[in-house]
From TrEMBL:
Domain ABC transporter residues, every copy: 4-232
Entries under SMART domains matching the protein: AAA
Top-level taxon in the UniProt lineage: Bacteria
Gene Ontology molecular function terms on file: ATP binding; ATP hydrolysis activity; transmembrane transporter activity
Pfam families in alphabetical order: ABC_tran
Protein name: Putative ABC transporter ATP-binding protein
GO cellular component annotations of the record: membrane protein complex; plasma membrane
Keyword annotations from UniProtKB, A to Z: ATP-binding, Nucleotide-binding, Transport
InterPro entries, per database record: AAA+_ATPase, ABC_transporter-like_ATP-bd, ABC_transpr_LolD-like, MacB-like_ATP-bd, P-loop_NTPase
Amino acid sequence: QVAASAENLTKIYGSGDTEVVALRGVSVSFAAGEFTAIMGPSGSGKSTLMHCLAGLDVATSGSVRIGDVELTGLSDKAMTTLRRDRIGFVFQAFNLVPTLTAAENITLPLDIAGRDVDKQWFDAVVTRLGLTDRLTHRPAELSGGQQQRVACARALVGRPDIIFGDEPTGNLDSRSSGEVLEILRAATDEFGQTVVIVTHDPRAASYADRVVFLADGQIVRELRQPRADDVF
Ligand code: ADP
Ligand code: ADP
């Protein structure tokens, strides 16, 4: 079962003298329940690929599917609904709402969607991310690592089919990175969710089932069951 896929994806920014080809015909698919890390040098197209897969950016040509839904041609409204109901985002720009507490930030997407919060699952996520005694704090009262973990909890709490992360451990100390990676691993192993992250962190990649390497807008290599040594 395929959770997401891209076929012959091309992305060109700008035109004429300023044209940059960020993706050159990328085809890749992500099996349901699998944890994939996308790695590669800066400028190789990782963020662009992630944004196109997640429906945050539109490719110049090619197609993207989330589950059995083809994203090309979806209306903005349908796209927003799909993102809201099926996709979780753990991005480095935390985008936490400064006036809300950690708990309110975590449940905000569900509140907006009018969905119920599963209290038991909320507690499980918060406990695993070490946020139990930070729930009434506002973002300004939290460390960077705690803010990142709140963003992670927010992505997980609605049990999305697929979780996209852009450097989810990028700003974290070793302990917080471990907690985030463990919970992403648990999302796949225990609950069959699909995880796709962009990372430079060999430790993050070592948690993945598969590493896909990009260079100059193309997939140049894939590894299964990587160890940290393989990806330095
Ligand atoms: P990575 O995430 O691997 O660092 P990106 O996907 O961010 O790579 O960028 C791939 C290429 O596309 C780079 O050459 C980058 O400069 C260019 N690029 C990315 N975003 C834009 C943009 N909004 N406008 C123009 N060029 C862009
Ligand atoms: P049951 O129907 O047996 O209660 P649930 O799906 O509600 O099964 O989940 C069982 C336990 O796993 C609960 O503690 C729940 O909070 C937790 N859980 C549920 N979904 C997820 C998930 N996607 N990731 C991690 N834990 C989850």
